[in-house]
Amino acid sequence: MRPRHPAQAAGWVLAALAVLLLVPTLVLLGLNVNHIDAGRIFSDVVLALAAVAYAGAGRLITSRLPGNAIGWLLGLVGLSVATATFTEQYALYGLVTNPGSVPAARVAGAVAGGTASLTIALLLPLILLFPDGRLPSRRWRPVLWAMVVVMVGWASQLFQAGTQITGGLTNAFQADHAAYPNPFGVFPRHGWYSSLLTGIFALAVVTGVLVVASVFARRRSASPEMRKQLAWLGYVGVLTAVWVVAQILNGLFATPAVSNGWLGTLIWGFMELTPVAGIPAAVAVAVLRYRLYEIDKIISRTLAYAIVTGLLVGVYAGLVLLATRVLPVNGSVAVAVSTLAAAALFTPLRSRVQRLVDRRFNRTRYDADRTLTAFAARLKDAVDQDEVRADLLGVVHRSLEPTHATVWVRPAR
């Protein structure tokens, strides 16, 4: 079926690009597995799941409400996460795993860093406009403009000389001692540009605080249903704040070896992954439990596919790790075998996950499906017409809950 609105086609393209980028990303992840620690592999799995969740939720909302900014922001974040993950793995392969084997590896690494910053920056307007795609009031317009300034400032760091390219959302180059000077250095490392970045950082902190405040401001005048929707974002915000405090305490009280070692990497990873993966999860749960945008049935299927994707990516990564680090298997062979195993698991896993999602979040549909299945089984053995009519009426009442139902039986000729 053709999209009924040009914006719907753009929504399809946005989601398709994000999902398609994950295919070469997973292949490269399998090839790079010997140069990535377990924590970063876990992060890449979560990021792949987040990209699918953002892209899927964005596509569904833009298909129903193309004028709602939330759908477009979700789609853009999904594409940004997928791009950051792909370019990081591409650059890691060209710089560490098989040096010089692919073109423009350093350029891809710089893009990975830029899209990682863009991902974090896009989360601010997403929170400010959630859930209806509008500002809480006109007084919040300066905050929106401040976000634009922060985004432009963060993007300009791609052109700061003297900086190091350390990777994307997981800083994979730094872990492999493969960080390199920024190839696009135009602005000076120190002086006026450094002062400008300091001002932009201060503005970003103030803007972030105001964005959090906007959730409480919106909640004050919101309906009971919207308050429940906003509560899910509140959970993500509180958890993110916990990781921020943990990182500060880690820097203040831990020894440099521990602070910059595994503990600092772990806390930093959770501090990034909590909002990146938590926000689409919060949006999905808000949609499912409180019927936001009236697409709860479609979202339940999207959530099921997102969960299946995450599980299969985890299985894929685990099999590649097992094959390359435990068994003496060539990396390319391990990737091929793991891909086939994940493909074989897709159908049975999807049906099981879909049932669990419907049972938890879409109970009405789950109960209706079970009622219809049981009726179809009884119908095979039924011989009494009056009994079948009464049974059918009971199924209709339990499944559809109509105010009135009548069954007309056509006599046999």
What fraction, in percent, of the residue positions are helical? Answer: over 70%
Structural class: mainly alpha
Distance between the termini: 41 Å
Quick check: average pLDDT? 77
Strand order of the largest sheet: 1-2
Poorly predicted spans: none
Q: How is the secondary structure organized here?
A:
Elements: H1 6-31, H2 38-64, H3 69-97, H4 105-129, H5 141-156, E1 164-165, H6 172-175, E2 180-181, H7 192-220, H8 224-253, H9 256-259, H10 262-290, H11 296-326, H12 331-361, H13 363-379, H14 385-400
Antiparallel strand pairs: 1-2
Helix pairs in contact: 1-2, 1-3, 2-3, 2-10, 2-11, 3-4, 4-5, 4-7, 5-7, 7-8, 8-10, 10-11, 11-12, 12-13, 13-14
Report on this model:
It is globular, with a radius of gyration of 25 Å. The chain is mostly helical and 413 residues long. The chain has a two-stranded antiparallel sheet with strand order 1-2. It is 76% helix and 1% strand. It contains 14 helices and 2 strands. It has helices at residues 6-31, 38-64, 69-97, 105-129, 141-156, 172-175, 192-220, 224-253, 256-259, 262-290, 296-326, 331-361, 363-379, 385-400; strands at residues 164-165, 180-181.
